[in-house]
Write a sequence for this structure.
C-alpha cells in the first residue's frame, strides 16, 4: 500500500513539476538560436597564435630558401677554405665571414618587414581587418624567432671550430646584424623607393665592404667586441633598431588614420 | 550531437532544442516569477549554450552543462525581479474545488521545501536527471544529493499520505 502511495507521490511530483511547452515557443527559440549561432560564427576571430602560424605560411618561401642557402654557403665556404688554408681558423677571417652572413640575414629580414610597402600593398592591407601595424609586429616576431635559431646554429659551429669566446662571437654577429637592420629600416623610412636593389642590395654590399676594410686595417676592433665597449655598441644599435621600428610603426599608424574610405 | 552542432549542423541544433526545451522550461518555471519569464529564461539558456558551446569539453554529461547554464540564467532573472515574489502558484486549473485546494497545498509544500531540497526535486522530476548529474549541476557530492532527495521525498510523502487519509 505504501509502495503504491510512494509511486503515486512520484507521479504527482512529476506532474506538478513538469510544464507543458507551447510548440510555437519552441519554434521561436529554434529560429532565434539558429540566427545567433550564425552570427557567432561570423564574429569568431582566430587566436593570435593561429594568426602567427598563418603568417609563416604566407611568407615567401624564397625568404626561407635564401636564408638556408646563405647558411649552407657559409658552412661550405668555411669548410672549403679550412681544408686548404689555415686562415679559415683565423679570428679575423671568422669574424668577417659571420659578419657578412649577419648582414645578409638582416637585410632579408628588413625586406620581409617592409614588404607591405611594395607595390602599394599597404593600402590593401589597411582595407582588411588585419592592421598593417599588427602584420609588421607579427613578422618581427617570426623573424626574431628564426634569427635566434639561425644564429644559435652559427654560434655553436664557430665555438666548436675556433678559439673565440662566446661574447666575441655574439658581438661579431650582433653588431653587423643590428647595424644592417638600422640602415635598411632608415632607408625605408626616409626614402620612397620600393626598389629591392636600393633597399637591400646596395646597403648590404656597402656594409660588407666597410666591414672587410675595418677588419683588415683595424683588427684591434675585435678585442673590443669581447669587452664592455662591444656590448655597449650592440646595446646602442639595438636601441636604434627599436627606434627605427617604432618610427616605422608610427608612420603606418598615421597612414591608417589618413586613409579615406569612399 | 554536440560535435555535429559545433560543426555547424543546424538539424542537430533543432533536435537538441526540441529534446531539452520542455525540461529546461520546467526547471526555469520553478525559479522565476511567471510563465513568460520562464519561457524567456529558457530561450536565454539556449542562446547562452550556443555562445559557450566551445567551452564544453565533453568530459561531463551534456545535460549537467546545460542545467548549469539554466541555473545561472535563472539567478540573473531572480536578481532582476527580486521585488516581485510569488509564494505559490496554481499551475493547473480544475473545476473541482477540493482538487484545487489539494493541488495548491501540494504545490505549497513543494515550494516550502528548503532551497536545496526543492532544487534536487525539480532537477530529478522536471529535469529527469540522474543523481550523479544532479550532483554535478549543483556542485555537491553524490551522497549529499541523495540525502537531500530522500529528505525532501520524506517530507512530501508524509504530507501526501496525510492528505490521502483525510480524503
Amino acid at each position: 500500500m505504501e509502495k503504491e502511495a510512494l509511486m503515486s507521490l512520484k507521479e504527482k511530483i512529476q506532474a506538478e513539476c513538469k510544464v507543458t511547452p507551447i510548440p510555437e515557443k519552441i519554434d521561436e527559440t529554434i529560429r532565434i538560436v539558429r540566427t545567433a549561432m550564425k552570427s557567432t560564427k561570423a564574429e569568431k576571430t582566430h587566436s593570435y597564435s593561429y594568426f602567427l602560424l598563418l603568417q609563416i605560411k604566407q611568407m615567401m618561401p624564397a625568404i626561407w630558401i635564401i636564408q638556408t642557402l646563405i647558411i649552407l654557403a657559409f658552412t661550405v665556404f668555411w669548410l672549403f677554405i679550412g681544408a686548404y688554408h689555415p686562415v679559415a681558423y683565423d679570428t679575423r677571417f671568422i669574424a668577417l665571414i659571420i659578419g657578412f652572413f649577419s648582414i645578409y640575414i638582416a637585410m632579408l629580414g628588413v625586406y620581409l618587414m617592409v614588404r607591405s610597402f611594395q607595390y602599394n600593398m599597404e593600402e590593401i592591407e589597411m582595407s582588411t581587418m588585419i592592421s598593417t601595424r599588427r602584420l609588421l609586429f607579427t613578422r618581427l616576431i617570426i623573424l626574431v624567432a628564426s634569427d635566434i635559431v639561425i644564429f644559435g646554429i652559427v654560434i655553436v659551429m664557430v665555438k666548436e671550430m675556433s678559439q673565440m669566446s662566446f661574447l666575441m662571437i655574439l658581438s661579431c654577429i650582433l653588431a653587423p646584424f643590428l647595424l644592417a637592420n638600422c640602415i635598411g629600416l632608415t632607408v625605408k623610412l626616409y626614402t620612397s623607393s620600393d626598389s629591392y636593389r636600393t633597399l637591400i642590395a646596395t646597403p648590404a654590399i656597402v656594409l660588407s665592404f666597410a666591414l672587410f676594410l675595418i677588419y683588415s686595417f683595424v683588427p684591434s676592433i675585435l678585442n673590443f667586441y669581447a669587452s664592455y665597449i662591444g656590448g655597449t655598441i650592440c646595446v646602442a644599435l639595438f636601441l636604434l633598431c627599436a627606434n627605427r621600428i617604432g618610427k616605422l610603426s608610427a608612420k603606418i599608424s598615421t597612414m591608417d588614420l589618413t586613409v579615406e574610405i569612399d | 550531437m554536440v560535435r555535429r552542432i559545433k560543426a555547424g549542423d543546424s538539424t542537430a541544433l533543432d533536435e537538441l532544442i526540441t529534446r531539452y526545451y520542455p525540461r529546461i522550461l520546467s526547471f526555469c518555471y520553478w525559479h522565476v516569477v511567471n510563465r513568460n519569464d520562464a519561457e524567456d529564461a529558457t530561450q536565454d539558456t539556449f542562446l547562452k549554450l550556443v555562445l559557450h558551446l566551445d567551452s564544453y569539453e565533453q568530459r561531463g554529461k551534456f545535460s549537467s552543462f546545460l542545467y548549469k547554464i539554466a541555473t545561472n540564467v535563472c539567478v540573473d532573472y531572480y536578481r532582476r525581479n527580486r521585488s516581485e515574489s510569488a509564494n505559490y502558484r496554481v499551475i493547473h486549473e480544475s473545476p473541482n474545488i477540493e482538487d484545487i485546494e489539494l493541488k495548491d497545498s501540494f504545490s505549497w509544500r513543494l515550494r516550502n521545501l528548503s532551497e536545496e531540497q526543492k532544487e534536487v526535486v525539480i532537477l530529478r522530476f522536471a529535469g529527469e536527471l540522474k543523481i550523479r548529474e544532479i550532483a554535478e549541476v549543483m556542485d555537491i557530492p553524490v551522497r549529499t544529493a541523495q540525502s537531500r532527495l530522500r529528505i525532501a521525498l520524506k517530507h512530501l510523502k508524509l504530507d501526501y499520505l496525510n492528505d490521502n487519509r483525510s480524503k
Summary: Confidence is low (pLDDT under 50) at residues 257-262 of chain A. Chain A touches chain B at residues 2, 5-6, 8-10, 12-14, 16-22, 25-26, 28-30, 32-34, 36-37, 40-41 (CB under 8 Å). Residues 30 and 226 of chain A are 71 Å apart (CA to CA).
